[in-house]
Amino acid sequence: METKKKFVVSHAPHWHNGNRVSRKSYNMMLAALPAVAIGIHQYGALALGVVCIAMASAMAWELILDLLMKRPSSIGDGTAALTGLILAMLMPPTLPWWAVITTTFVAILIGKMIFGGLGGNPFNPVLVGYAVANLSWKGLFDFDAALAGGYTFGFDMAYPLTAVKTAVANGAGAEAAANFSASALLMGQQTGGIGAIFGLGLIIGGLYLIIRGYIRWEICLSFVAGIFVTAYLFKAFGPEGAYADPSFHLLTGFTLIGAFFLMGEDSSTPVNLIPMLIFGAGAGVLTMLMRNIGAYADGVVYAILLMNILNPLLDMIRPGALGKVVENA
Amino acid sequence: MKRRSFFGLVKPRLSYSAPPDLSSLPLEEVPASRTATFFVPGALESKELLTLKVGDIVKAGQRLAPFAASDDYAVSTLAGKVTAMEPYTDANANNFTAIMVEADAQKEWVDALDENPDLATVAANFQNGPGALCLKPVLDPEVNINTILILGMDQDLLVTAVQHVVKSRTKELAKGVKALKRITKVSKVILAAPSYLVDAVKNCDCEVKEVDTVYPNATPKLVMHKLLGITVPAGKDLIDMGVLCVSAEAVAALGESCTTGKACTDKILTLINKDEEAVNVKVRIGTPIKDVLALKSIMVNSGDRLILGGPMTGVATYSVDLPVQPDTDAIMVQDADNLSEIEDAACINCGECVQVCPAKIPVNVLVRFLENKLYVEGAERFDLLSCVDCGLCSYVCPARIPIYQYIGLAKHELSRMAPEAE
What we know:
The structure holds 2 protein chains of 2 kinds.
Chain A: H1 21-43, H2 45-68, H3 79-90, H4 97-109, H5 125-136, H6 138-141, H7 143-148, H8 160-169, H9 173-178, H10 182-186, H11 199-212, H12 217-237, H13 246-251, H14 255-262, H15 273-293, H16 300-314
Chain B: E1 28-29, E2 35-41, E3 57-58, E4 63-64, E5 74-75, E6 80-89, E7 95-103, H1 119-126, H2 136-139, E8 147-151, H3 161-168, H4 170-184, E9 188-194, E10 207-211, H5 220-228, E11 243-247, H6 248-260, E12 266-272, E13 278-284, H7 289-295, E14 305-308, E15 315-317, E16 330-334, H8 352-356, H9 363-371, H10 375-381, H11 392-396, H12 403-421
Parallel strand pairs in B: 1-13, 8-9, 8-11, 9-10, 12-16
Antiparallel strand pairs in B: 2-7, 3-6, 4-5, 6-7, 12-13, 14-15, 14-16
């Protein structure tokens, strides 16, 4: 059976829905834009600088490390740019350029590349980078200290979580939180990370990602629910007036960016229903424990990192497959 | 090609196509070809030992049994002369002997079949007929078949050949069901058909169940699970559960043969062109694919993909000279510009395959094991053998990993390992 024409022979299926890894990255960047834009609007050119350096350096590190590790170039999947963008969203606008570049280096190398690239990382690279940098240069990442020099805004410039944290120690957390109205927090009238201050923008971006199916709603919503319920329990059963409202905790710090952008990382989060709910709720509970009785003003980063460790274990809770044979049953 | 919907929150719903309105669209017939090719299981090693030789004259309906030691054979669908015998290996590495027959002017048929054929005759004759009716398990004394499941539904998207048979050949189908019951002495016969075809099969003397038209619900294992309430354990097949699964086209062919006394040589298949327009045509088994394509003037060029079967589970093949086989329900052609690419990427753990898998397999973990050739672990710990072969995991994978191919390879390797272990 001789044939002159050479056909493409490949295994089924011969259709694909057209999705690819880079689509998720670009859609997440798109969803982050409203929050980032408001951040740049509020903090000015410094913030723009941080965003640009973070994204550019993250991409550069990915390229360089791919070369050094003799791996095929993975810059095209857009995850390096996304890592840079989300890192910038967590940073204060005054962070010096060398700190930004070091943070992205740690995120890309230790967060991702040494595990074999995207998909192999047990932790969210953004969180690894941020946690290492934050522990190294605590002063640079302190929002109150960072913004004290050059900025004056028409609203309370204290970093809400630090203000409340100090007040909680004196048993007056609710009073301190009352200084920040929910609408002001929602509209970006607060200090914080470049992309973390505009609550409404983050919610819109997050809902967009959920509807498009790029992030898993089970994780996002259970995280929000975990924070809300734990904060409510603290307020209801703690000493009178000691703890802030649940709504305050939902709209400050890294809660929203955590729910939609940090939890949206695939490799370090579970995929089955029950594990996803446990993962999200667990991170929410841990966050609130750290905020209300722990050492950190904002616990989102460490809470998610801790849950990342549990991910492989959690994901073993899964539905039985069709016709699964249980041995020795 | 079906694209990911804008709203990605819900998992993709791919629906099977419904057959066209028969009154407005007469079934086109592929003109009889001068040659036909038939595959007989078994490797062609030495031509001297064969009982069939090049140059032999065969009648239409005659058995082509080249191996004296084996009871496998093909049935010629035309009268003529054997012009060539060549080895052929299919996509699953099974060896066949291809026998080419060139038509002569005689058109002579072998002796007519009995009106009430016995089981052995039917089992022997109809596995080469349209729909490839395989009754061997009924003959096997070690297997107890208590139910026959007739699938009145196509297995793949865009394909409507079997449904076309159910819709247009109701009388033959009813007669075939009766004959099947009488021949096999199996009283429990269940016909699975989509809701819009239930009316067409109401005269059949069997239980009719409605198949959901969302892919892959017509897959035999899922039909068993959802309609019959029997879950096939991982690693077993329907036969192990006492259920014989046959195509409605095969049953209709049996019904027709009982009336005419002749073996049925024509089958209906769905021809899908590069624009994914599907049309059903009638074609004689053994006809070269190029003659089928010529009917609709479909051009196939280098770099295109020629698929026997539908878009999700079809087998891509390499030559237009290959014949239409008894179980070829569709021929699909894809243009070189529209081929979906496969990438050698790592799993990013997005979970889309896990959500879409009808068998609830942890595909994200399984694929990591299969990529590293850990097939036994994949089967024991991560439910490899629960797979129902729908291909949806590869269809949704954003990293474009050929997951379904890994699964197919793993199953193949495990089946090769199995006899060694015993």
